[in-house]
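Email to the structure team, subject: RNA-binding domain-containing protein model.

Hi all, the expression group asked for a predicted structure before they design truncation constructs. Nothing fancy, just the tokens so they can compare against earlier work. One-line instruction: predict RNA-binding domain-containing protein, return tokens.
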Amino acid sequence: LPNLRFAYVDFATPEAKTIAIALSEQPLVGRKLLIKDGQIHSKTAQKILRQQKQPPAPTLFIGNLPFETTEDGLKELFEKHHEQETKRGAGKDSKKGKMEDDGFILRVRMGTFEDSGACKGFAFIDFSSVDNATSALINIRNHLFNGRELKVE
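Reply from the structure team: attached below.
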């Protein structure tokens, strides 16, 4: 195969990626390497990320929920879209079965009225990592629920 002079590398940890990027412009076999972060987001995802007022965290705030919302319904929304992304990215090697097995969502905490138990219109979803929360945040399909545009932060 001809030497195309570029490569894509997947790192085991975010720290390893950071260390590699810091080595950019260092010589290797007589040539300086240009090392870039390949994490490319769509324009929509970039816009969502720019609008965030808080630093990245493993918890998302979900607002403008219908009063009929249940914890299970909200969890199902986010897991369904996570499963679709996982299948799309993994191809034939994707996991089969429920997404809760992979620890994507740890719990859903929904604000409820004491007298009726109905949703107050907001919830917090705790994800297993900041990366999982960010993935859920930038997935535009998670911003619409039962015909309502959600506030996802």
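The chain has two domains: 1-40, 43-91+100-152. The radius of gyration is 20 Å. Ping us if the truncation boundaries need rechecking.
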